[in-house]
Amino acid sequence: MTQDGSEPxxxxxxxxxxxxxxxxxxxxxxLSPGAALRETSVATELDVSRNTLREALRLLTSEGLVTQAxxxxxxxxxxxxxxxxxxxxxxxxxxxxxxxxxxxxDESRFTAMETAVAAKERAEQARLWREAGTAxxxxxxxxxxxxxxxxxxxxxxxxLAQLRLAWAESCDEERFQRGWAARxxxxxxxxxxxxxAQSVGVLLLYLEDSERQVLDGLRRARxxxxxxxxxxxxxxxxxxxxxxxxx
Amino acid sequence: MTQDGSEPxxxxxxxxxxxxxxxxxxxxxxLSPGAALRETSVATELDVSRNTLREALRLLTSEGLVTQAxxxxxxxxxxxxxxxxxxxxxxxxxxxxxxxxxxxxDESRFTAMETAVAAKERAEQARLWREAGTAxxxxxxxxxxxxxxxxxxxxxxxxLAQLRLAWAESCDEERFQRGWAARxxxxxxxxxxxxxAQSVGVLLLYLEDSERQVLDGLRRARxxxxxxxxxxxxxxxxxxxxxxxxx
DNA sequence: ATGGAAATATTGTTGAACAATCAGGCTTCT
DNA sequence: AGAAGCCTGATTGTTCAACAATATTTCCAT
Lengths: 247, 247
Fold this sequence. Notes:
Two copies of one chain form a homodimer.
Chain A: H1 14-28, E1 36-37, H2 39-46, H3 50-63, E2 66-69, E3 73-76, H4 81-102, H5 107-125, H6 129-145, H7 150-170, H8 173-177, H9 180-192, H10 196-223
Antiparallel strand pairs in A: 1-3, 2-3
Helix pairs in contact in A: 1-3, 2-3, 4-6, 4-7, 4-10, 5-6, 5-9, 6-7, 7-10, 9-10
The structure holds a DNA duplex.
């Protein structure tokens, strides 16, 4: 509503709007991991009915950004170490495949990646850490795009959103993002040159280091609760593992 | 409610129950592709409120089994050819990787696959075509499991559910399933022997043939509408492409 | 303090309501 | 007859108020 009135194209439903707003707040850090999402308060704040809000929460839960425990309500997802590992395992599968396939990819794919990498470098220079994180994710998203599948793109998008959230908990952005622009650049250049084996090797190291960093940060954050959480403490609270039907 | 009362363990919410029931009906074919899901009628039939039903529909939409057009309501998803291709593209990425990795997989993974393949053979023998289809999907699900990622498993599950639905539209089960047990078996044996290159080769052919068959069936079904659809015809009705933000 | 009971808050679910939009039939005009 | 428009009934999008069931907090008596 108060967004940009330029394009009247999209007439989002109330639910969709709420999903967007909440997703935005979660990813941008306004809503910290573990924070409770009380139905009435959020609903009145966003000026929608409790029913609509509930739909939105359900959707966000299915995106993996929110957890819902029966009769106890919803809260911003706080990832466990094992979940973070799962996310990286998934990334490895997809990105390695993408790196391999990128050797025969269209040139336009590379310009998309290049754009993201350049953005990341600028952001790091300017010390806009959150921005830097986003750019990095965009680079990897562009990498996945070479696989040419909508479904995969969409899936990867939700995956990275989860990772973004995990980052949010694990540490302060600066220490977290500093120095990664160079590694993104390195990886990108190898990909562009079509050096499969090398690309994959570098990629695996990249992911391994990144994973370790997140896990360390998470461990540290859990050990010494950074700062008072908005509501529900994110401390010893076992974040209610969602039923893992598979695996 | 009238299910099996053996395990009182799971206390599903109303929404979850509705999702399960509808998903079941869609995959089992009771609800054909293109069929309209009128809110009031479905809600009263399942004995829940319209609000609850709406939550369920939203969820099913996010699973890709239902489409919702603004102000026009929900209907069982009818896949386009290009979507089917997208599904297979995704399968290729994941299954090829899984086949590769299966060479170093735990023995227990193979027993899971073996079970599914055997079930498929029995089903084909007994001419239980739908059962056969399910077994085949279970085999491929088990293959993906070697990648060891919950998220990937879950994603693949929804992917195969979509494919199941696409099959439903594309043809009668018999012609569709006959003969595939042998190919599943062939693939499985190669995997078990750890012959990477050969496995991948056979797998790619398998997927290519399967894709072609589905696309042919779909074309045929569209050309000569099999039988009167429950409600909304699934004929020339452009099934309202869901916004493809990515790709 | 400590266990437990009463009070309060929150969730799960429903039913009814109403404006906005859609689908089909009917009228009317050319 | 055929096209343009209008009316009407269905259906969706969204809200509100209610109530039972389940947490959480408060408070009291021991």
